[in-house]
Amino acid sequence: MVNKHHIDMLCIQESKKEVIDRAMCQALWGDSEVRWEAQPSSNTAGGILCLWSDKTFLLERKVCGTGFVMLTGKWVQEAQIVNIINIYSPCDIHSKRVLWDVIKQLKNQSLGGLWCILGDFNCIRNPSERSGVCQRGLEDSSSREFNEWIAEMEVVEAPWVGGNFTWIRPNGTARKEFF
Hints:
Layout: E1 9-13, H1 22-29, E2 35-39, E3 48-52, E4 57-65, E5 68-75, E6 80-88, H2 93-109, E7 114-120, E8 130-131, H3 137-153, E9 165-168, E10 175-177
Parallel strand pairs: 6-7
Antiparallel strand pairs: 1-3, 2-3, 4-5, 5-6, 8-10, 9-10
């Protein structure tokens, strides 16, 4: 898939892998010329993996923390510094707030460049993004805080192509929309 679609960087959340090695990364990338950074899962929960080629991205700095991997480097073709943060957010609101604060601090301390913050935030921006599940008051607060964080970070939601939902239960009763 990577070679067929000419993918420059692949970011995976919830890898469910405690050990990530060269053989696995080469198999996923489809080429021996692959670089990667990972945050292993805990048992079968979580796990973050970023894969790329030095032909397209030259890593200058990495920061790994609870729920994220940040890569800063030069996007070769454009000769542009970029900061890419791959997130797999915890589900509880307190841990989300901690993660959001850490990401905000990293951005505020950065020396510039373009920013791409992506992943599974385990949060919705508004109730219409969730279908077939109980709408809880806590989610309204969480959504409000999430939207405030997005505004403070000065990022915009990129348009998506394809399906509208990140997952659907086998019986189709619950769905979670992309962000």
